[in-house]
From TrEMBL:
It is found in: Cell membrane. Signal peptide: none annotated. It holds the Pfam family BPD_transp_2. The lineage of its organism: Archaea, Methanobacteriati, Methanobacteriota, Stenosarchaea group, Halobacteria. This is Branched-chain amino acid ABC transporter permease. PANTHER family: ABC TRANSPORTER ATP-BINDING PROTEIN, HIGH-AFFINITY BRANCHED-CHAIN AMINO ACID TRANSPORT SYSTEM PERMEASE. Keywords: Cell membrane, Membrane, Transmembrane, Transmembrane helix. InterPro entries: ABC_transp_permease, LivM-like. It is a multi-pass membrane protein. It comes from the Archaea. The chain crosses the membrane at residues 58-80, 100-120, 132-149, 189-208, 236-255, 275-299, 320-346.
């Protein structure tokens, strides 16, 4: 019938109406905004996780993963001890605020500065030693920092119990919900966290789009060729490690506020392992891939551990019920299988690359352009 529109014509009309090049250029800023706008209402839906506060944690880990990807995704260096920078940021803010009675912002700046300087010095010592030695040395330094924090020298770190109750004067908590209170105005802590997340994400995005970021990508693809054309490989890797440490420490400061303290877990090898898995699972080839990996990991952890009964088709009209609590208690096993599958199918693409490739093929098929896949 003449009044009906085919899928191809609809896609063509949308393509003509939307400036595709502009959208492609701004896809990362738009993606960051979409994350902070939609993640909280989505995860807090009663059919999913059912509470809003988990969105705060997911945003912080997303920032951690994107900062870590500056190292593994753009410079090709794998750190087994990156949690030490997260912990230094968290402990620096907590110690300065609670022990030294400094303003929180000054304490946070001290924590980030210490992590940045440590990242620079470790980078100078380790990046030229080769990939395997770099990985082992970062693990060794991280374990040393963990040991120092656990020993509680000078009563600064709280030992195995960590530090609790270190909050900025402008943060208030009421019935588990945190608010930013500036005297004349009060708003949900999530909005400040989301603002910092977007600003930090845009800074990292500009960094990887700059000549510095493009040079890092060239080093990752062919280090010998980059060295042959006169690029100072060590200097670029040191600064990649340093900047990644600085943004990771910023995530640590946000985590300290969100958790109202710092714990040894922030410094542990388990945290370093989790961020490696999240980043690779999401896809190191894409700026937002690690953020997707962090979301999938944390969402699965909360959703699957709380999921007990599968009711089909709807809980209001149960026809089939399946008990799953015993099976889904092993959520890490199933997520590990997903990680293995993603690495085997697309080692650098991850879940983000697989989903993006599927959508692009679907778009081309609807648009009638199948030559790309022949």
């Amino acid at each position: 019938m003449s009044g009906q529109r085919s899928p191809t014509s609809i896609v063509n009309r949308i393509s003509d109406a939307v400036p595709v090049d502009s959208v492609s250029t701004l896809q990362v800023p738009l993606g960051l905004l979409a994350i902070v706008i939609f993640i909280r209402p989505v995860v807090s839906h009663p059919l999913l996780l059912g509470y809003e506060q988990i969105a705060n944690t997911i945003l912080i880990w997303m920032l951690f993963a994107v900062a870590f990807n500056l190292l593994i995704g753009y410079s090709g260096l794998l750190s087994f001890g990156h949690a030490m920078f997260l912990g230094i940021g968290a402990y620096g803010a907590a110690i300065g605020t609670l022990t030294w009675n400094l303003p929180f912002l000054l304490s946070a700046a001290i924590g980030i500065t210490v992590a940045t300087l440590l990242g620079y010095l470790l980078g100078r010592l380790t990046v030229a030693r080769g990939e395997i030695y770099f990985a082992m040395l970062t693990l060794a330094f991280a374990q040393s920092i963990y040991f120092i924090a656990n020993q509680n020298y000078g009563g600064l770190t709280g030992g195995s119990t960590g530090i609790s109750g270190a909050l900025p004067a402008w943060i208030e908590s009421y019935r588990g919900v945190m608010y930013v209170s500036l005297g004349w105005v009060s708003f949900d802590w999530y909005y400040l966290l989301a603002t910092v997340f977007v600003v930090a994400g845009l800074l990292l995005w500009q960094l990887v789009r700059s000549p510095f970021g493009r040079t890092l990508a060239a080093l990752r693809e062919n280090e010998q060729l980059a060295r042959a054309v006169g690029i100072d490989v060590k200097r670029y890797k040191v600064w990649a490690f340093t900047l990644s440490a600085a943004f990771t420490a910023l995530a640590g400061v946000l985590l300290e506020i969100n958790n109202q303290g710092a714990t040894l877990h922030n410094l542990s090898i388990n945290t370093s392992g989790d961020i490696i898995l999240m980043t690779i699972l999401g896809g190191t080839n894409y700026f937002l891939g690690p953020a997707a990996g962090a979301f999938v990991w944390l969402f699965a952890e909360d959703f699957l551990t709380e999921f007990e009964m599968l009711v089909l088709p709807l809980s209001e009209f149960p026809i089939v019920t399946i008990e799953l609590s015993g099976v889904l208690a092993y959520w890490q096993f199933f997520l590990g299988l997903l990680f293995v599958a993603a690495v085997l199918v697309a080692p650098r693409e991850g879940l983000w690359g697989l989903c993006r490739g599927t959508l692009e093929r679907l778009y081309d098929r609807i648009n009638g352009d199948q030559t790309k896949h022949e």
